[in-house]
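Today's session is about reading a structure prediction critically. Students often jump straight to the picture, but the first step is always the sequence itself: look for stretches that repeat, for charged clusters, for runs of hydrophobic residues. Only then move on to the predicted structure, which in these notes is written as discrete structure tokens rather than atom positions. Here is the chain we will use throughout the hour.
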Amino acid sequence: MSSTSADRGKWLLPLTLVVGTAAWLPLLFLPGKKAIADLRHDLKTRQDYVTSASRSGALLESTARDLERTRAYNARWRGRLADSAQLASLFSEIAQLVRESGAATTRFAPQSPIQYDHVRRIPLAVACEGTFEQLQALLLAVEQLGQRLWVSQIKLEAGEAGQLVKCELTLVIFADQSAVSD
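Below is the predicted structure for this chain, in token form.
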């Protein structure tokens, strides 16, 4: 019987280690491993946030520069808007440009203004006749008036050889909303 007891003694230590390991694995190791995985995931999430925040700073600076350039452009453009006192002189200046080009005015008709939040858009229909060179000089002079006036449409109609060219154009004048009165 002593040989059986000695055999049991040999297996008792390894058996205890196997049972202890088997108990340790589900009770301590696996929950600890899950907690470590959760901490790694949380750390990765926070690192991604910090990385995106550093990129957002550069994007914010770029957007701020764009906004400042846009505001400066708007301020320059607003400085070129006509007000109610300038509209009459601008119409007069356009009529003078037609005369100086050598073309003859056949129609000069301001249209109804179109209201926007901060500006009014005032279309102006101008029809005239002249040589091609005269009309080219007129268009060049109109374009040099500045940003507050756009050539919206142009229609040229040539007659027979040696005859005058008919020109119909729609100009758009932008006027400050607060300064223009009906």
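Discussion point for the tutorial: The radius of gyration is 42 Å.
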